């Protein structure tokens, strides 16, 4: 025999019932079929709601029942010809019984578990009678089989336990007396020794099917549902989750216990005992393979089969020095919990024996606390142990797979992936069978954690990266253009799915968690809602997306002020904004240490020389043990451009304006002309070389007449124009000596200075074209001939490409 079970969605409407019956008809061509059915989707909840309302004295239960009756009537009318009045009459009589039952509950103001079982049983009774009638009309040799006469349980209403021996006999008797090809059986319900209706727990229709399959020693059990099998993770949380084709009973049991709701956990035991294959199939896509649960699934290279989670968990910590080395504490703890019928989901104990930690469903936490504190009242009073400490809002995320056994590195990878994303693990449990590694984490981190783990274990070729971009000005908009152009390349060549989740300027913020359209953002941003920087920070933290990177393409000090907060949440920072790296040393050092502590990159290569590999080269030198003795550099693209293009034929101010128009200057060009920007850069280099230095330690010799730095940017240009003769004199003097003007930064022996110099032909800095930068590193290894990095040192396009490169570095960590 074959047992096929159809869940609530598979029988939720006339159309779905037809689909389910078509599947049964095909199966019946191969041999007899037991069709176990759930109630029409949503019916059980409606019945419970009606019962509870009636018990609470709320007459609204009558409306619920009327709606339920109407829904069933519609199904009958759609499925059966008008001439076939039997089922409709039966419906009337069944709803009469339901109404009487609810009226009784209303009158008594009480709903016992026994009455609730009776009330809930009508859901499956209604659906199974209807479906049996339709099958008969379709010409199938069908019999309706009352599960209450087949499955015997004890009288634990709500979650009755099955008496398998009696059940087996009753099923065998029924089979002898009913040779029909198709049995239609209501799932979920059974009866105790007195014939009183019981239920097998929510989801119990799966269990009914498994019990019948075992009792009949069926050739297979098929669970027909609305998804194509067990998935590698909950598809509502992980978009790239995929069905698992083959899985062992043990693995299926682990996964179903841990939230893979496609299968009611007790279902596996009866079929596993007899080695009956269990298929999970999709009623709405019957040709899809689904999941086959069997004794020995074909071996796959997959070490981890699935990732599952259970929410609503509370950890209870029993802790105290009085526990160490004294036998019996755990026994008393578990007995106290068992007395209250509290199910323990997870247990961990450290080898110091100083604490035992158990995980329970959150609704059980309060009674558990009372029970345990009572049990240990004497020890608590004596200060030998602490009162029980519940910790709420937690969840379990577990890796499941038989191949994890003896496979080193799985837990390392698990912890690494979670740690890199700032997911703190509160407790861990792994049985010696190594089929399941469970971690307890904050409920708020579940989505991120499952995605991170899914990526680590199932998507070796793809990593999703989520960008939050602040300040799409010159550099930022070029960056967005480059990202848009390279998205396909990144996915194909580097396996990086780079999504821009948010773009904000100082007024608006545009967000799409699925990734913004990078061609339409300028118009959309202008229409987007207003948002403050604080709100933007909270948005990044609250979204809690894996592999999040904050990209700061502003020049704003307040923006630099949010890095610490974000790093502490394991959000990586990529900045071309130089404010943070050139702020007080203590702050710079704190950001570096947060970056290490929380495994989040803090990258700012573009702070010096735009996209030139200057900081990276310096880091490579120092990390490999080299020591920087001195540095000599031209670090201002703007000033190099200005002095390369000024010869007195055009006003100096006009050349500066051109540098600004071409995107080389800071948003405030006075920073470039005053030498401050170069001072920030040599400060950053000195710090990266290992020197503890402040901005005040840098000697800045400005060549600007003081009047140029008074007032705003327009006044600055006006004053430069007014002091044209000053700039001309500087130029003429240099030219007369056969030299060129270069604004040079120097560092040696812990001292740094910046200022204008004239350099002669042959000097390393003499031939520096356009807006180029150059750095000469003199180190222990490069003592005579410096290591030189040279090239374009300013401009939106190159800077954006440097930011892009930092994003890729952060993403690939
Ligand atoms: N232009 C270049 O060659 C290089 C620039 N950089 C750095 O790149 C950064 C950006 O430069 P540009 O793009 O030229 O400047 P920009 O002025 O064109 O763009 C900055 C953007 O940031 C926005 N912004 C300012 N404060 C904000 C806030 N609180 N919240 C949100 N958005 C805010 C502005 O509205 C503007 O859209 C600067 O820090 C600069 O030092 C670094 C290396 C080279
Ligand atoms: N304004 C800077 C550009 C980036 O740092 C410069 O001119 O060098």
Automatic annotation (TrEMBL):
Annotated metabolic or biological route of this protein: Amino-acid biosynthesis; L-threonine biosynthesis; L-threonine from L-aspartate: step 1/5; Amino-acid biosynthesis; L-methionine biosynthesis via de novo pathway; L-homoserine from L-aspartate: step 1/3; Amino-acid biosynthesis; L-methionine biosynthesis via de novo pathway; L-homoserine from L-aspartate: step 3/3; Amino-acid biosynthesis; L-threonine biosynthesis; L-threonine from L-aspartate: step 3/5
Gene Ontology molecular functions: aspartate kinase activity; homoserine dehydrogenase activity
The keyword Kinase appears for this protein: yes
EC number, UniProt record: 1.1.1.3, 2.7.2.4
SUPFAM superfamilies xref list: ACT-like (SSF55021), Carbamate kinase-like (SSF53633), Glyceraldehyde-3-phosphate dehydrogenase-like, C-terminal domain (SSF55347), NAD(P)-binding Rossmann-fold domains (SSF51735)
Classification via InterPro entries: AceGlu_kinase-like_sf, ACT-like_dom_sf, ACT_Aspartokinase, ACT_dom, AK-HD, Asp/Glu/Uridylate_kinase, Asp/hSer_DH_NAD-bd, Asp_kinase
PROSITE patterns according to UniProt: ACT, ASPARTOKINASE, HOMOSER_DHGENASE
UniProt-listed Pfam families: AA_kinase (PF00696), ACT_9 (PF22468), Homoserine_dh (PF00742), NAD_binding_3 (PF03447)
Gene3D superfamilies: Acetylglutamate kinase-like, Aspartokinase, catalytic domain, Dihydrodipicolinate Reductase, domain 2, NAD(P)-binding Rossmann-like Domain, VC0802-like
Keyword Flavoprotein: no
Cofactor: a metal cation
CDD domains according to UniProt: AAK_AK-HSDH-like, ACT_AKi-HSDH-ThrA-like_1, ACT_AKi-HSDH-ThrA_2
Alphabetical keyword list: Amino-acid biosynthesis, ATP-binding, Kinase, Lysine biosynthesis, Metal-binding, Methionine biosynthesis, Multifunctional enzyme, NAD, NADP, Nucleotide-binding, Oxidoreductase, Sodium, Threonine biosynthesis, Transferase
Record's catalysed reaction(s): L-aspartate + ATP = 4-phospho-L-aspartate + ADP; L-homoserine + NADP(+) = L-aspartate 4-semialdehyde + NADPH + H(+)
ACT domain location: 399-477
Function: Bifunctional aspartate kinase and homoserine dehydrogenase that catalyzes the first and the third steps toward the synthesis of lysine, methionine and threonine from aspartate.
Subunit structure: Homotetramer.
Family: In the N-terminal section; belongs to the aspartokinase family. In the C-terminal section; belongs to the homoserine dehydrogenase family.
UniProt-recorded name of the protein: Aspartokinase/homoserine dehydrogenase 1
Organism: Hymenobacter artigasi
């Amino acid at each position: 025999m074959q047992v096929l079970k159809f869940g609530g969605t598979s029988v939720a409407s006339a159309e779905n019932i037809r689909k389910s019956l078509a599947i049964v008809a095909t199966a019946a061509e191969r041999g007899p079929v037991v069709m176990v059915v759930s109630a029409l989707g949503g019916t059980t909840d409606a019945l419970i709601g009606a019962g509870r309302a009636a018990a609470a004295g709320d007459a609204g239960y009558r409306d619920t029942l009327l709606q339920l009756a109407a829904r069933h009537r519609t199904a009958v009318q759609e499925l059966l010809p008008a001439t076939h009045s039997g089922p409709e009459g039966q419906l009337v009589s069944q709803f009469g019984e339901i109404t009487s039952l609810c009226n009784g509950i209303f009158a008594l103001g009480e709903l016992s578990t026994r009455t609730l079982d009776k009330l809930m049983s009508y859901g499956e009774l209604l659906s199974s009678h209807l479906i049996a009638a339709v099958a008969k009309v379709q010409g199938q040799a069908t019999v309706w089989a009352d599960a209450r006469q087949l499955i015997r349980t004890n009288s634990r209403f709500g979650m009755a336990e099955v008496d398998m021996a009696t059940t087996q006999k009753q099923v065998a008797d029924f089979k002898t007396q009913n040779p029909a090809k198709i049995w239609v059986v209501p799932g979920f319900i059974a009866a105790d020794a007195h014939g009183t209706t019981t239920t097998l727990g929510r989801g119990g229709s799966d269990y009914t099917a498994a019990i019948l399959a075992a009792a009949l020693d069926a050739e297979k059990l098929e669970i027909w549902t609305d998804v194509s099998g067990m998935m590698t993770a909950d598809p509502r949380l992980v978009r790239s989750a995929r069905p698992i084709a083959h899985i062992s009973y043990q693995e299926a049991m682990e996964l179903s216990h841990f939230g893979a709701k496609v299968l009611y956990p007790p279902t596996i035991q009866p079929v596993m005992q007899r080695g009956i294959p269990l298929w999970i199939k999709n009623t709405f896509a019957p040709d899809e393979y689904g999941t086959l649960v069997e004794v020995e699934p074909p071996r796959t290279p997959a070490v981890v089969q699935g990732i599952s989670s259970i929410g609503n968990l509370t950890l209870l910590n029993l802790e105290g020095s009085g526990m160490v080395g004294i036998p019996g504490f755990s026994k008393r703890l578990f007995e106290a919990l068992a007395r209250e019928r509290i199910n323990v989901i997870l247990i961990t104990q450290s080898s110091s024996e100083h604490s035992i930690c158990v995980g329970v469903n959150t609704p059980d936490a309060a009674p558990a606390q009372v029970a345990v504190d009572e049990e240990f009242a004497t020890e608590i009073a004596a200060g030998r142990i602490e009162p029980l400490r519940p910790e709420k809002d937690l969840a379990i995320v577990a890796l499941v797979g038989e191949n994890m056994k003896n496979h080193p590195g799985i837990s390392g990878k698990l912890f690494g992936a979670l740690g890199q994303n700032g997911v703190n693990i509160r407790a861990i449990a792994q049985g010696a069978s190594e089929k399941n590694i469970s971690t307890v984490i904050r409920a708020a981190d579940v989505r991120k954690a499952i995605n991170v783990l899914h990526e680590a274990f199932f998507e070796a070729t793809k990593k999703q990266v989520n960008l939050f971009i602040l300040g799409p000005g010159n550099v930022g908009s070029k960056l967005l253009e480059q990202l848009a152009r390279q998205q396909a390349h990144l996915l194909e060549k580097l396996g990086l799915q780079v999504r821009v989740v948010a773009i904000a300027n100082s007024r608006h913020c545009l967000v799409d968690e699925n990734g913004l359209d990078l061609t339409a953002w300028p118009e959309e941003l202008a229409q987007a809602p207003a948002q403050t920087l604080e709100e933007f920070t909270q948005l990044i933290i609250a979204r809690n997306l894996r592999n999040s990177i904050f990209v700061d393409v502003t020049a704003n000090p307040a923006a630099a002020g949010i890095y610490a907060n974000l790093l502490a949440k394991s959000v990586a920072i990529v900045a071309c904004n130089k404010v943070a790296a050139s702020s007080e040393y203590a702050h710079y050092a704190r950001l570096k240490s947060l970056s290490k502590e929380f495994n989040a990159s803090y990258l700012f290569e573009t702070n010096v020389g735009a996209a030139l590999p200057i900081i990276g080269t310096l880091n490579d030198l120092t990390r490999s043990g080299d020591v920087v003795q001195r540095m000599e550099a031209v670090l201002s693209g703007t000033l190099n451009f200005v002095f390369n293009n000024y010869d007195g034929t055009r006003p100096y101010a006009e050349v500066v304006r051109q540098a600004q128009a071409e995107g080389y200057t800071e948003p405030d060009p006075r920073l470039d002309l005053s030498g401050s920007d170069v001072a920030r850069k040599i400060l950053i280099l000195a710090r990266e070389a290992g020197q503890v230095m402040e901005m005040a330690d840098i000697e800045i010799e400005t060549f600007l007449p003081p009047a140029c730095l008074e007032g705003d940017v327009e006044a600055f240009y006006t004053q430069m124009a007014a002091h044209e003769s000053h700039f001309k004199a500087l130029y003429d003097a240099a030219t007369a000596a056969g030299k060129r003007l270069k604004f040079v930064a120097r560092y040696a022996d812990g001292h740094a200075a910046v200022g204008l110099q004239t350099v002669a032909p042959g000097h390393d800095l003499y031939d520096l074209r356009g807006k180029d930068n150059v750095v000469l590193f003199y180190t222990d290894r490069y003592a005579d001939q410096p290591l030189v990095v040279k090239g374009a040192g300013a401009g939106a396009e190159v800077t954006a490409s440097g930011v892009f490169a930092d994003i890729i570095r952060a993403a690939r960590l």
